[in-house]
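We modelled the chain as a single entity of 520 amino acids. Its sequence is:
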Amino acid sequence: MGRRVKRSTRNAAVHAPAVGASMAAYQAAGHDNAMFDWHPGGGSADADLLPDLDLLTARSRDLTRNNGLMAGGIQTLRDNIVGAVLRLSSTPDYRLLGWTREKAREWGNTTEAHFRSWAETTECDAGRSLNLLGLTLQALSGSMVNGDGLGLPLWLPRPGSSWATRIMMVESDRLATPPIKAAMPNIRGGIEFDQYGAPTFYNVRRTHPGDALGAWAAGADEWERIPAFTAWGRRRVLHLHDKERTGQSRGKPIVAAVMREFHMAGKYSSNELEASVANSLVAAFLESNLDAESASELFGEDPRSAWGESVKQARNLRRMQGAAIIPLPVGAKVSSFTPGRPNAAFEAFMLAVLRHIAAGLNLPYELLLKDFSKTNYSSARAALLEAWRYFHGRRRWLMDYWLRPIYELWLEEAINTGLVEAPDFYAKRYAYSRCRFIFGGRGWVDPVKEANAAQIRMAAGISTLEQECAEQGWDYEEVMDQLALEKRMRASRGIPEPGVVQIAAPAEPAEEEATAGATE
């Protein structure tokens, strides 16, 4: 024991800092003038987030309602992550199923057709108002603005309907811990967990806590305890949120890191606008440079009344006109009102703040502001490529934690009703439900250059028609079927086949000048 203490003492002496040196091995953990008052807490994921989540969510919604830049940023994210297209591409794992590739493709095409009859109609919505695209956009918006997107899969057979599986969207405010369970150690943010951190039950309020119009309704302070899964493994809750730290039960608004900058930049911009409006008004002051003795000599015993009469005479001219002579009271001069607006540094300051906000939202500045006026093709392409790395990651996240679970719920019903054949479904659930989704296309910055690049990629064997079509939101099989149909229609009408178009990038201006010079 004595030896152990001695060795510990020797190591402490070796690693002790010299006199005057910092006590921390890392400068970031030092206590110099820049760091001495920076001591953030070291709480767990839930301890750091849950006490502030309600206020973060309320402020995030207020920004989305009243800040045009925030509203536009959320819409930009919706348009680029999901867009106007949402199509299932069923890709069952034919190797695990023991099928051929052709059988898997045929099974997938049949399943996709049945799925469209559910997903592209309001059959999928418990509220009968949205299709799957609308529900997905609502879930994505909820996860970005509130921190969580919440959906409850319900079994609701309806007369005249082919399907009973429906999704009911629930705002994240309703997911909360009942007061009676507040002291339980296994419940966080309304979610009950087992010893391994897996959710077991979700506690959902029957009404929204902020619904003043429905506060009188029965069940306003009642919760429903919903199991995460049924006894046979069917999901009962769809919870879409980012889990950035282990042990994190709920998500946070996407704008949390730059919310302060958003709010202050909005106030600063509004104040500058008001000041500029005030500056656009023509205003002036009349000033008298007469002392008391001079005024008494000029106006007599009552200088105040005499000055007032003089001012009334000067008011005869009501409107500023060209070559006008303005009469002034005796002993007065005109001083203009100049508040010093617009602020010359306003644009540069706002540009720096907006670039910081754009980085916090994982968007290029040009895309957030929709301003490409100072961007050339190469810069725009680089900015959009960086943005699309983020969008592709969000698409994968949306597929894994929202769309695939929904597809699996629908597929279970389709198999149990006999519309889709899938022997041993519950034993081979993953193989049958393997799929991907096609979202809205990314578009082109320069169609000629990018179509040429796509042709080169396919010719070199590093891309396929399926991949290129998916980038633009199209299904390659539908494209090929349409091409075959048009070919047959041209043949039946005696119209020749179109020739192969040789796509070439336009010559740069320098190249055109060199070619012209060589010709001359």
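As a brief sanity check on the tokenised model: The chain has a mean pLDDT of 82. Residues 30 and 36 are 7 Å apart (CA to CA).
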